[in-house]
Amino acid sequence: MLNKLPSSISALLDARANGHSLPAGLYVREDVFEADIDVFFHNHWICVGLDCDVPEPGDATVIDIGKTSLILLRDDDGEIRVLHNVCRHRGSRLLDPGKTIVSKLVCPYHTWTYELTGELRYAPHMGKDFDKECRSLKPVTFKSIGGLIYVCLSDNPPEDIAILEQAMTERLAPYDIRNAKVAFQTDVIEDGNWKLTMENNRECYHCSANHPELCVSFVDLDFGFDPETLSPEDREQAEEHFRLYEERTNAWESDGFPSAAVEQLADCATNFRTQRLIIAGAGESQTHDATAASSKLLGHMTRKDLGDTHLWGHNSWNHFMGDHAVVATVIPLSAGKTLVRTKWLVHKDAVEGVDYDLDKLTDVWVATTDQDADLVARSHAGTLDPAYQPGPYSRFSETNLDKFASWYIDRMRAHGY
């Protein structure tokens, strides 16, 4: 007879066995979803966008996270701002979701008007003694790390973001993504819990069977394998691959390109990993033939042989290559719906049809994202089944999932669950 789910979130956390996936309730229950939003999307640093989402003064975009709505914009002095999308009069939303261009932020309800810095400039019929100084829009704590915008909605943001900032500021500098251009964007809503989305991204156990396009350039061995199950020929190939890794990493770093793995996956608040990965085949880019999609390289890059600088956090994954970058952010919509927003970046002066072909630029990760959406939906459907029981992670190919699940449990408990 199947056991009933524990009634409290705390009991669900206690029920998780080391080395195993999470109890079903942590994936499917709405009360857990609300707790996740509070803990991981309000009290931790999350990636929400890019400097180049708002390239010119007056450019603005709205990002909704649970009940919270944020405005990312560039003010008249060219500075990035992140503001709460809540009028200080009676709380009306100022801007609708999506991108827009504004000269002022004007509330559509009663025309309270704010500068792009958030200062209240006009509030009709409030009396001569009304103090506008204390009614500016509420700012959001944020950091631009190499052009990636991280926000924290807590009054006490985790300080260990400094480790990510130190690692990525130098690594991202040559790509100059602050001044890149978004060539294409997709929004895919996956029918699954956000943790399943992140788990799926943190392993390549499934890659060879499900991602033929990606596996032209991406080496699934990079994220673990069982050496005892390999044939002698495959084992020899794997050993050669990792010998080449050591050689390439040393060469890249001697040329001034930090490449070795840096990770903060346990006993921390800010969860991330970065490493410069080898690109297979032609070795240039994550495209269908592993050659560069853009002849105009990103930022200050002069080489196409510098691999893939990958970076993941608990709501994002990124791949930075010589010719382009792929940036994905994850926003939970409900216990069983997750938005995956993917952007392809090129040099700001690159011209479609001249410097790059859009299909070649995007086809690998468009296909991969659609394939992953199907896999996540299958996983979520399984966790809803009464027959679901947490299964063991592979100690060769899924160690990062075990670390993620353990980190999730630790952070939930740290916030009182």
From TrEMBL:
<keyword id="KW-0411">Iron-sulfur</keyword>
<feature type="domain" description="Rieske">
    <location>
        <begin position="45"/>
        <end position="151"/>
    </location>
</feature>
<keyword id="KW-0001">2Fe-2S</keyword>
<keyword id="KW-0479">Metal-binding</keyword>
<keyword id="KW-0223">Dioxygenase</keyword>
<keyword id="KW-0560">Oxidoreductase</keyword>
<dbReference type="Pfam" id="PF00848">
    <property type="entry name" value="Ring_hydroxyl_A"/>
</dbReference>
<protein>
    <submittedName>
        <fullName>Rieske 2Fe2S dioxygenase</fullName>
    </submittedName>
</protein>
<dbReference type="GO" id="GO:0005506">
    <property type="term" value="F:iron ion binding"/>
</dbReference>
<keyword id="KW-0408">Iron</keyword>
<dbReference type="InterPro" id="IPR001663">
    <property type="entry name" value="Rng_hydr_dOase-A"/>
</dbReference>
<dbReference type="InterPro" id="IPR017941">
    <property type="entry name" value="Rieske_2Fe-2S"/>
</dbReference>
<dbReference type="Pfam" id="PF00355">
    <property type="entry name" value="Rieske"/>
</dbReference>
<dbReference type="GO" id="GO:0051537">
    <property type="term" value="F:2 iron, 2 sulfur cluster binding"/>
</dbReference>
<dbReference type="InterPro" id="IPR036922">
    <property type="entry name" value="Rieske_2Fe-2S_sf"/>
</dbReference>
<dbReference type="InterPro" id="IPR015879">
    <property type="entry name" value="Ring_hydroxy_dOase_asu_C_dom"/>
</dbReference>
<dbReference type="GO" id="GO:0051213">
    <property type="term" value="F:dioxygenase activity"/>
</dbReference>
